[in-house]
Amino acid sequence: METLLRRLFFIAITLASLGLVLNAALPVTYAQTGDELPEVEVVDFVDVERYMGLWYQIAAIPTEFQEQCAGGVTANYTLLEDGSVLVENQCFGERGFPRNAEGRAFVDDPETNAKLKVSFVCIRNRCFFFGDYWIIGLGPEYEYAVVGHPTREFGWILARDCELSETELEEIKDILEEQFYDFSNFVMTDQTVNGCTMDEETGM
Hints:
Elements: H1 2-9, H2 48-51, E1 53-60, E2 71-79, E3 85-92, E4 98-107, E5 115-119, E6 121-123, E7 126-128, E8 131-138, E9 144-148, E10 156-159, H3 166-178, E11 187-188
């Protein structure tokens, strides 16, 4: 039971999800007009094999599922023989102890490979309580990824390195703006535990 509760607690840790949350939120609407926002758009295509490996969480929209993560959030993806993806997330709490969560991801849109369903509640190869993991931005060399959600209530910025250049950050801001995300809702992730420095002004 303790293991199951721990998995439930980490259901939205992203890196890719990270983590990833249930579809419980209401659609986001224009505050000024009351019109519903256009649907979130994913990238044209994701090479799943290139997407595998270690990702650092650069920033994310805060969620209650990650409240006990003080920093050092990472996600490691491994392609399995059945075509699903092993998701291994890690973060560090206030006292410096690591917290880990393991899940499975499944491609939900084989045409683009950009929409995935992720679960952190898997028992004997059966998974439950799936969340959406939509890749809405991707660097040309897969150096960064922007992960969104159809409700726009959740979002993650991931990178192969624990630091982003100003140019890359501006590209990501443009991607989020085009998708009607508010970048000011994102909080930079403290990655000093992984050997990165933090700029006092930008949080990076």
